[in-house]
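W.,

You were right to be curious about this one. When I first looked at the sequence I had no strong expectations either way, so I just let the prediction run and decided to look at it fresh. Below is the sequence, 109 residues in total, followed by the output.
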Amino acid sequence: MIRYTALILALAVPGLAQAAETTGILPESGGKSPYSAPAVPTTMKPLAGSLASLLDQGYAITTTTQTGPELVLTLSQRGHVVLCALTPPDLRNDQNIPTSRCWALNAAP
């Protein structure tokens, strides 16, 4: 009975099966959907400073998300937005301290 219900729902609601197969939380780029935005090149300027140094300069963490072992953070200060990836220690590879990589997403106003 459950299989028949799923089949009926898949046939009755166009796009339901396709929506169930998509991965991620955002609509596919370039897809034929009114919610699909075009993929536009974005400049990411690598920064030499660490996440800790940016926080010491007064940047505030605005968003965080976990992506595998890394934590991706968005920071901001007076209109300047920075994206950082924080990698935890990996004792399997003799990396015993956390590391970070950061990129400026825009020029400061």
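Here's what jumped out at me. Residues 1-22 have pLDDT under 50 and may be disordered. And, maybe more interesting for your project: The first strand starts at residue 45 and ends at 47.

Coffee later to discuss?

I.
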